[in-house]
Amino acid sequence: MATTLDTRTAPAEQDLTVVPVRHYGRWVAALASVLALAGLVGSLATNANLRWDVIGDYLFAGLIFDGLVTTLWLTVAAMALGLTLGTVIAVMRLSSNPVLYGLSSLFVWAFRGTPLLVQIIFWGYAGALYKNVLIGIPFTDVTFFQADTNSLLTPAVAALLALGLNEAAYASEIVRAGIQSVDTGQAEAAHSLGMRPALTMRRIVLPQAMRVIIPPMGNETINMLKMTALVSVIAAHDLMSNIQEVYAQNYQVIPMLVVASLWYLALVSLLSVPQAWLERRYGRGTAHGGHTSPLRRMLTGVTRATAPKTGKAEGR
């Protein structure tokens, strides 16, 4: 028997008032944090040992800009090498061929298991291990190419190889995780249509895996920018190398480190903008794809959630 829900006793929609929960502890913690930050900034601004005059003199110096150029091209080139090689290694690790799987796993094990600083020093002093670089047929006297190791592996080239190969080990794991996140039915459907495995990977699997690959690769790019500072141990003339050359002459270590920190912070801030855009772009349709930061909500007036409207209900 059908019955109708009596809604006459229910309060009217306009009479409902949503009262937000007051979080006084959050405001107290926020106020304490702002006061602590203001005190720290004030103490740094009035600290005569920072030598703000030295910072101002070298912040936009030509030597600093030369180091910035090297840092930027090292970041771009190392990420390009790492992503390209990492994709190949990821496909090899997913291969059913035991030789390809073993070689790719050995590569990841070696370059991910040793510190980046050790790898940079190794490539920088590779001439002590091999005097000449030879390319030919192994175990024969046939040689196609020969060059002096020190002349071939300049500090810049050694830095690029160290950063790029190390990044390839980490990028391969990110790409592999992205490929495995795609449902296997996608590849099976493509194979049933006659597509070859390589074409399926390029046209079907990798485009869908980008949702998982792109956001962490943005973090890897920012991390790579900062890791270029390690190549100063082989005098690759990056930003940190030039900073060290300056404070080795004027002994103003702290002011010059502040100059380096300001430029690294500026570059990371610029890279964070496209990273945030890519995370939102490829995170659409996921559980956290629509996340909005508290600062953005406060500035734009966007609420975390919109309460559903209530009205009369009818049941049977």
Write structural notes for this entry.
Helix 8 (184-192) runs antiparallel to helix 9. The chain is mostly helical. Mean pLDDT is 83; it is low at 305-316. It contains 12 helices and 2 strands. A hairpin with a 6-residue loop joins strand 1 and strand 2 (143-148).
Question: What structural keywords apply?
Answer:
3% strand, 2 strands, disordered C terminus, flat, mainly alpha, two-stranded antiparallel ribbon, 316 residues, 12 helices
What is the 3D form?
flat
Question: How many strands, which pairing sense, and closed or not: the largest β-sheet?
Answer: 2 strands, antiparallel
Radius of gyration using CA atoms only: 28 Å
List how many beta strands DSSP finds.
2
- Average pLDDT confidence is 83
What structural class do the secondary elements suggest?
mainly alpha
**Spatial strand sequence of the major β-sheet:** 1-2
Describe the oligomeric state of these chains in a short phrase.
Answer: single chain
Runs in which pLDDT lies below 50 for 5 or more consecutive residues are: 305-316
Distance between the termini: 8 Å
**β-sheet strand percentage:** under 5%
- Count the helices. How many? 12
How do the helices and strands follow one another from N- to C-terminus? HHHHHEEHHHHHHH
Give the helix level as a range of percent: 55-70%
